[in-house]
Specification:
single chain, 14 helices, about 70% helix
Length: about 350
């Protein structure tokens, strides 16, 4: 599953499933805050997203280090669905006064800034996408540094970024409710991809099982705490352990749940699900009044209803927005000029600076 017949690093479906579980769990975290006075914010699954992004994007850059291909992939992967959700929320606000969370500004300039993820006041959960965009050059630079200087500079950068996570001016640098404290989670994911396989292979089966259970327990515990810099660091640690073991120790039976068809389904639609779940939560609150139920039962029922309402919207977005635009990005890749060796001699000099063709990032 990890290496294709052509020698390139292949797709790891269990990691996609893990992202799906994280996306669905965000609904439970956010629903908890609707019924209790709690510090729970849903940061833990977002930290998991960041570690996964670092891992998967480093893997893609190993397959194709062309930065233009990398950036095109990010553009066609992230922006179409996000733009569609911002456009939908803008339309609903103009027609019905609808908004999720707190009411943002819907003037044309702010709508555009939200659509390109510079701001996130229209759909608050998109703060993590603002951080993802900010992290894109960090990921490119980190992979380049690792390939030339090894892991030590990346370890230093993690230590530096962790230190900065205690400084409020840095944490809130991007404005709004964005949080740069877990930025080093992307770098941790890169290190996992570059060096994690050898580490995972050294573990005995019993040790791998114990680490898996401990990582899950630590992740769940941290997710229920106030999100301080040390707690975010522990979330990064537990997420990194889970990504490491899911990716490189497939024999652990605990992770067989990630192969189930429903889990795989939510993995595929996880990005659109994350973007749209505030609408699903709003609809659930309007359709069902659970305030008379015991708190735990109310949270559980409302979470299930919100997930059920978000799922068809997310599938439609994945099927008719995400997939077509990803395919479009791949078609654009095939239209790049051929390498100079395949061009007639009289044309080689003229086109010697043209980009070579390459397969799209996964």
């Amino acid at each position: 599953m990890s290496t294709s017949k052509t020698g390139k690093l292949g797709f790891l479906p269990r990691l996609e499933s893990l992202r799906g579980i994280a996306a669905v769990s965000v609904v439970g975290y956010h629903m908890t805050s609707q019924f209790t006075d709690t510090y729970v914010t849903g940061m833990a699954p977002v930290v998991m997203f960041f570690v996964l992004s670092g891992f998967v994007l480093a893997r893609s850059l190993q397959n194709n280090p062309n930065p233009i291909t990398f950036l095109r992939h990010r553009l066609f992967r992230l922006f179409p669905a996000a733009i569609a959700v911002v456009a939908l929320l803008t339309l609903l606000h103009h027609q019905y006064g609808f908004y999720v969370g707190y009411e943002g500004k819907f003037d044309p300039l702010n709508v555009v800034l939200n659509a390109i993820m510079v701001r996130h006041d229209i759909n608050g959960v998109m703060w993590s996408m603002t951080v993802e965009c900010f992290a894109t050059p960090v990921i490119l630079l980190s992979v380049w540094i690792f390939q030339r200087f090894g892991p030590q500079p990346l370890m230093v950068s993690i230590a530096v970024l962790f230190g900065l996570s205690f400084w409020g001016a840095y944490v809130h640098l991007l404005g709004g409710i964005s949080n740069l404290a877990p930025l080093y989670a992307f770098v941790a994911g890169i290190l996992l991809q570059m060096q994690g396989e050898r580490t995972a292979e050294r573990l005995r089966t019993a040790a791998a099982w114990i680490l898996s259970i401990a990582a899950i327990a630590l992740f769940c515990f941290c997710g229920s705490q106030k999100q301080t810099a040390p707690i975010i660091a522990l979330e990064t640690l537990s997420s990194s352990l889970l990504v490491l073991l899911v990716a490189f120790r497939s024999s652990i039976g605990l992770f067989a749940v990630l192969d189930l068809r429903p889990v795989r389904f939510y993995g595929r639609i996880s990005y659109s699900f994350y973007l749209l779940h505030p609408i699903g939560m709003w609809l659930a609150a309007r359709l069902l009044d659970a305030r008379g139920l015991p708190v735990l039962l109310a949270i559980s029922v409302m979470t299930i209803v919100a997930v059920a309402l978000t799922t068809p919207m997310a599938w439609l977005s994945w099927r008719y927005i995400e997939k077509p635009f990803i395919a479009l990005g791949r078609r654009l890749a095939t239209k790049q000029p051929s390498p100079a060796s395949a061009i007639e001699p009289r044309q080689q000099q003229l086109l010697s600076l043209a980009p070579t063709s390459g397969k799209d990032l996964e």
